[in-house]
Amino acid sequence: MLTKRASEESLSTLILATQNKHYKKGEILINFGDEGDEYFILKSGVVNVEVIDEETKEVVATKTLTEGAAFGELALLYNSPRSATITALTDCHAWVLDTKTFKAVIMQNAVRERNIRLGFLDKIKVFEKMDRYKKLKLLDGLEVQYFSSENVVVRENEKGEYFYIIESGQVKCTKTGEDGTDTFIRNLNAGDYFGEIAIMNDESKRTLTVTATEDTKLLAMTRETFYQCLGEFSNYLQKEYSI
């Protein structure tokens, strides 16, 4: 949940920010009632979790966690005391990330990526009459998709479901002739977009095949997301764009 919407770049930064820590058998990693400031990913070993009732201070549940388990995430989301005590049942090795680093990385990358993407929207004719607030709202509906070289993004004559903005990389557009041969039309690069008709017309079909020519990062938006994010403005845009 914590990194569900994070880009690969943000994840790489978070990985570099983690600390390797070792804990001896019997050592406490998290103590009930303490202020939480670390997030743990267990690389090896076994820990015991005792969930404690805040009022009675009695143990209400126990469980063990093994390699690959992650815990302490509430400290990254809320300023609340620990609700459990976690103790090493064996010698353990964990990757540990402090709250301040996590928030700083996520916020810094989020702001940087938002500004880059806002710049892309500013250059797109479809959105030129949209105010800044609506553009920022629209950014929340974009999802990141990655394509390797030679991966087909959209195929000619298929129904269009996504509108795409190229954040990095390159794609080529081709059209298949009656004899079955593909004709090169053009290349599209970072900042270019395609598939806008798909969000304007439910019945539209792709007129070209678009293929990645290198590792490419796309910002994608479904028609449903577009209408959910923009509501009445989408009706205006549809009418305006059809002229």
Which structural traits does this protein have?
243 residues, alpha+beta, Jelly Rolls, 2 domains, four-stranded antiparallel β-sheet, disordered C terminus
Write a structural description.
It is a single chain. The protein folds into 2 domains: 8-101, Jelly Rolls (Sandwich), CATH 2.60.120.10; 123-241, Sandwich (Jelly Rolls). Helices cover 26% and strands 35% of the residues. The radius of gyration is 24 Å and the shape is elongated. The strands form 4 sheets. The protein has a 4-stranded antiparallel sheet. The chain has a 4-stranded antiparallel sheet with strand order 2-7-4-5, with no helix packed on it. The chain is built from 6 helices and 16 strands. The chain is α+β, with helices and mostly antiparallel strands. The two termini are 43 Å apart. The protein has helices spanning 8-17, 74-77, 99-122, 132-139, 223-230, 232-241, and strands spanning 19-23, 28-30, 38-44, 47-52, 59-65, 70-71, 84-88, 92-98, 143-147, 152-154, 162-168, 170-176, 182-189, 193-194, 209-212, 216-222. Helix 1 (8-17) packs antiparallel against helix 3.
